[in-house]
Amino acid sequence: MANGNEYLWQGDIRFWGRRSPVLFPIVGRLWNNQYNHEGETYELGQHGFARDCEFQLTYEEENSLVFSLESNEDTLKLYPFPFILQIGYRLRDNRLQVIWNVENTGDREMHFQIGGHPAFYYRDLDLNTKQRGFLDFGQKHLLLHYLTPAEKGCVKPEHQELRLPDGIMELTSDSFGCDTYIFDNSQLRKMTLLDRNRKPYLSLEFNTPLAAVWSPSAVHPDVPFVCLEPWYGRCDTVGYRGELKDREWIQHLAPGKSFTGGYTIVLEDL
Prior knowledge:
Keywords: Calcium. The chain is an all-beta fold. The chain is built from one helix and 23 strands. Strand 13 (149-151) and strand 14 form a beta hairpin.
């Protein structure tokens, strides 16, 4: 909270009980919630297991925190790769940097995806109107290509087009009939939330190859938040039954090596 305004959704099971989960070791859904690896079939639910695990605080300074999760007997049953996942938070002025570090502590190549799922309040929500605000993609004369979930939470390969002459998408209670907009191929680097008067109040900056925008307003028209999601990976394509290592947008990490990624939240009205 800053200047009397709450930015990060605080959770409410009527709409969505989570706030800003980390998605690991997969992003999105697997076809039939299963994946294949070296002759074995594993069951794994949407967005993986890390969001439901307890992390340990391993570093603390005045404006920085680091939390860690290490593979264990339970995670190895779901995902047969030893790892250490660290999530760091660094606050500087009006910017909060979120840093992911994935270390492969095993003796074979590791295959994974990781992503963020932070939810942010609409500013000055008025349920007497369908209008919720705007999302500025920071580019003029914009033609975006996006995927949407089609079956069992998985996508079909065909992209749809989103034309935005001023680079700004209006957000309404009807905007998410498609459930989720998934922008791949590094089309975006920044998304900025604007209030109903088009005043910016929050931005998300990232270098991920995919980004998603989601709100459960198709089910709950009065939902007061929208999620801006930076992803290294996405759900399966409908019908995919191949190997984990061959999934689209999968990341590969050699033994003893580390992967670093993340995103930055900027409070624009401070």
